[in-house]
Amino acid sequence: MLDRPRLAALLLGLATFVLFALHLGRPGTIVFDEVHYVPAARAMLDFSMPMNSEHPPLAKQMIAIGMALFGDGPIGWRAMPVLAGVATVLGGFSILLLAFGRVPVALIGGVLVALNQMVFVQARIAMLDGFLAAFVTCGIAALLWAGQGRSFPRLALAAILFGAATATKWAAAPYVALACLAILWSLRATPANALAATLAFGTIAVATYFASFVPLFFHARDALAPGDLFAQQWRMLDSQTQILRPHPYQSDWWSWPLMLRPIWYFYEPDAGIQRGVLLIGNPVVLWGGLAGIAACVVAWWRGSKPHGALAALWAFSLAIFAAIPKSLGFFYYYHLSGVFVALALAAAIDRYAPHRAQLAVITAAALAFAWFYPILSGAALPDDQAFARWMLFDGWR
Hints:
The chain is mainly α. Helices cover about 60% and strands about 5% of the residues. A 3-stranded antiparallel sheet has the order 1-2-3. Helix 4 packs parallel to helix 14 (about 335-350). It starts with a helix and ends in a 16-residue tail after the last strand.
């Protein structure tokens, strides 16, 4: 398997799907921000009226597809997020495979992404960020693939994926700009080709973004007029930059790598059984990954560009939220950064740690995941005070 990347990816994807989909129906009620996105998906499914218009429509359309296939219930709400979570893991696997050309480091990265806990939780809830991570990670992988083959279809695939990411959430727009800069740099020896490739990439990405709005033209009430498409973007900007009231789970961007304020998505009785869902990262992966980032910087200093790129990608993903004008921040904004930090940890231990140490890191991550699993998965808890077992710090309550 270690010399057969397609087989490795297939087995990783199947294992991840089983892990993410098991007991998907719990809790059996609306969880956290599903209160916004499930009704919006219902409205898209029956073309009644646009809802949740402060964000682009694609992720809600994806949720609606799941509901069309599996019904308007917990499985239907969360079916497509599960696939997005699997795609995120495989996107991470592909990034490392294409960057380093070796299946073992790609497998380590894929496993650590699957176990980083944030991907697991976001794969089991109808929110936007799981789709954002899937499109961005797969877009980066497609861009690396295009760089190896100088192939326009591969470049177009990358552009579609980045456009889809932006059609999910505007937080992806900086990655589109970063991808354009990467294309210009990689083709700098031939300026005409660099400009043509960048223009093609940008055009396809923008077209993909606006294509996601087409179904909104056909709603029975308050349908979006084609001529109002650009005005809608300004309304979205106004909505996303408004000053919001303080929230008990709000947190600053600098605190996310330290996991100072995770978020209880759910903690209440469900069909008479106490359940909880806590968005919290795996300490082995997220905290250990900070050491991995430092090790990647050292490796870059010693001449390894792929290690440096992973460290820079993580820093870039965090800097986005330090710069954008949002009045409130939440730990789930760190979701994509948590993917990058897992990949950096994999690259770091692959370079610097012996095989036994690599196995120890993976085992420790798996044990931490297993310990947190009851409050990641909505498992049955003995009583309403059971949460205290996992609250290592006051900020986690």
